[in-house]
């Protein structure tokens, strides 16, 4: 899932400063799970902003709260049409995709980000999320025992560990496991070390010309304008 | 015919001595030139580091040109941290056109250990891919498969870490580097000769020359700092104790003595094919180490 962190309240106050009526828009999917922008966080942020403006005495804002099931899909945004008419800006607590889909759907109103979208990852334990996928578009996990060196090696290198690894940890961060030591150990356990002995050529960055688009041909309506 | 004087020496049975110079942080190269003059006739080749420890400095390529101008034998260090494949190929073409013939291919330290921590890490290639790329350029084609007008030819080296605390994956990588075209290796700093012996028992089956990395320590504090903060360095407790037990102000002298002792043993016991001395900011003491290791007469 996508993992995000809410921006500091002060930064949020600065971006919403020009707008009197603001819709605080949560998203019910990834950012709900990682506790950055779901219904609960929208409500909490609402209180925090009210407290902050009461304290500073510049109480010009009024807030509306709403959380949609998914911000990254137009079909879930139609519900917002009436609410959007009542506000001057939308603060989206969705990921960077959510912010942009909302902006694309409602072209006449500013849409501002309330979270920093961090990575795609997993909940390692309660309250700890770890990055697992870089969405490189060219998955090599079959060769690396299901451990991604592009994401989990700080250098993203493909032919084995650098010389900076110490005690199984990364030279960039002593708390972080060296991805290549993990890969080696797991390949050894799976009796697949020959996969590590193989030469892997440089990455083909052309598989990911930005921005990326995937067209699943069977589902595309002929002649439909995709922007 | 050999690509370089250094390559010629690699194919001899001589005990090889290389050292390295860290370029200045700034445009004043006078001290670097002084170091080059001091060392160029005492060693077989001089590496010029490429933003060592990810600290921004005068470039390796510029330093190698100075070594060349001063009449020395340079080894260009190329890391993959700061340049993509276009930039590295271009640098190699420039290097070759100006007479630089030895290249040390490295992945490069992480941006996080340096002094520009907010910079974008490139790592478009890794060290193995870099070696392969240079060999492809030598065949007359760039990495995009396009014909080169004038192909470069280099003597290629890389690094290996015999003291890594988890050695097997390092050895797999070493073999990939050999297969990719490395002719010589300068090891990470060696402090425990037992690990070098073990490594050489394994490495001697490959047709490459191994130069043991010798880091000159100036104090126990520096040794501990390196263990904590410098990627790939493992100073033994025995050496730290040895440095800790000298009088104040005598640390560097002790460091020189330790380095010389390691070099002497390596040479006398024929442990590997040579040494690569890294004086880390103390280039001017390299002649003292050579003298203490009784290597001066060999190389003058």
Describe this structure in words.
The complex is a heterodimer of chains A (227) and B (300). Chain A has 227 residues and is an alpha/beta fold. Chain A has two domains: 2-119, Rossmann fold; 136-204, no CATH class. Chain A has helices at 9-16, 30-33, 39-56, 74-77, 81-85, 96-105, 149-152, 179-189, 194-197; strands spanning 2-6, 21-27, 62-68, 89-92, 111-113, 115-125, 128-133, 169-170, 173-177. Chain A has a four-stranded parallel beta sheet, sandwiched between helices. The longest helix of chain A is centred in the N-terminal third of the chain and has 18 residues, at 39-56. Chain B has a single domain, classed as TIM Barrel (Alpha-Beta Barrel), CATH 3.20.20. By secondary structure, chain B is an alpha/beta fold. The model of chain B has no long low-confidence stretch (mean pLDDT 95). Chain B has an eight-stranded parallel barrel, surrounded by six helices. Chain B is globular. At the A-B interface, helix 8 of A face helix 5 and helix 6 of B.
């Amino acid at each position: 899932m996508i993992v995000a962190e809410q921006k500091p309240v002060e930064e949020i106050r600065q971006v919403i400063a020009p707008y009197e009526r603001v819709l605080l828009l949560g998203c019910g999917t990834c950012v709900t799970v990682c506790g950055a922008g779901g219904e609960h966080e929208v409500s909490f942020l609402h209180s925090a902003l009210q407290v902050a403006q009461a304290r500073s005495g510049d109480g010009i804002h009024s807030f509306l709260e709403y959380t949609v099931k998914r911000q990254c899909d137009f079909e879930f945004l139609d519900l917002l049409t009436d609410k959007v008419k009542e506000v001057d800006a939308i603060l989206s607590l969705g990921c960077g995709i959510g912010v942009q889909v909302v902006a694309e759907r409602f072209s006449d109103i500013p849409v501002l980000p309330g979270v920093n979208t961090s990575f795609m990852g997993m909940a390692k334990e309660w309250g700890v999320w770890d990055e697992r996928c870089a969405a490189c578009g060219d998955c090599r996990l079959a060769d690396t025992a299901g451990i991604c060196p592009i994401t989990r090696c700080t250098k993203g290198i493909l032919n084995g560990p650098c010389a900076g690894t110490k005690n199984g940890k990364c030279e960039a961060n002593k708390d972080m496991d060296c991805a290549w030591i993990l890969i080696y150990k797991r390949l050894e356990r799976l009796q697949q070390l020959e996969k590590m002995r193989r030469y892997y050529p440089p990455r083909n960055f052309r598989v990911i010309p930005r921005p990326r688009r995937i067209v699943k041909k069977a589902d595309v309506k002929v002649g439909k304008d995709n922007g | 015919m050999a690509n370089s004087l250094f390559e010629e020496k690699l194919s001899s049975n001589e005990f090889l001595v290389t050292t390295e110079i860290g370029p200045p942080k700034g445009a004043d190269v006078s001290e670097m030139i002084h170091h080059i003059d001091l060392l160029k006739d005492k060693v077989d080749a001089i590496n010029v580091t490429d933003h060592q420890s990810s600290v921004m400095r005068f470039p390796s390529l510029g330093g190698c040109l100075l070594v060349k101008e001063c009449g020395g034998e340079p080894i260009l260090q190329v890391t993959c941290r700061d340049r993509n494949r276009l930039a590295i190929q271009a640098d190699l073409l420039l290097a070759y056109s100006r007479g630089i013939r030895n290249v040390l291919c490295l992945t490069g330290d992480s941006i996080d250990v340096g002094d520009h921590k907010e910079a974008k890490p490139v790592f478009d290639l890794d060290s193995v891919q870099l070696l392969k790329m240079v060999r492809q350029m030598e065949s007359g084609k760039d990495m995009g498969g396009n014909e080169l007008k004038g192909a470069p030819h280099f003597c290629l080296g890389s690094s290996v870490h015999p003291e890594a605390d988890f050695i097997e994956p390092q050895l797999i990588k070493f073999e990939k580097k050999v297969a990719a075209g490395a002719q010589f290796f300068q090891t990470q700093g060696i402090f425990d000769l037992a690990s070098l012996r073990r490594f050489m028992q394994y490495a001697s089956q490959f047709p490459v020359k191994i130069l043991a990395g010798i880091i000159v320590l100036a104090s126990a504090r520096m040794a501990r700092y390196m263990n904590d903060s410098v990627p790939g360095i493992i100073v033994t407790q025995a050496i730290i104790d040895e440095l800790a037990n000298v009088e104040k102000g005598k640390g560097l002298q002790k460091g020189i003595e330790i380095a010389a002792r390691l070099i002497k043993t390596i040479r006398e016991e024929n442990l590997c094919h040579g040494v690569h001395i890294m004086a880390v900011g103390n280039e001017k003491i390299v002649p003292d180490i050579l003298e203490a290791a009784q290597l001066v007469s060999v190389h003058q």
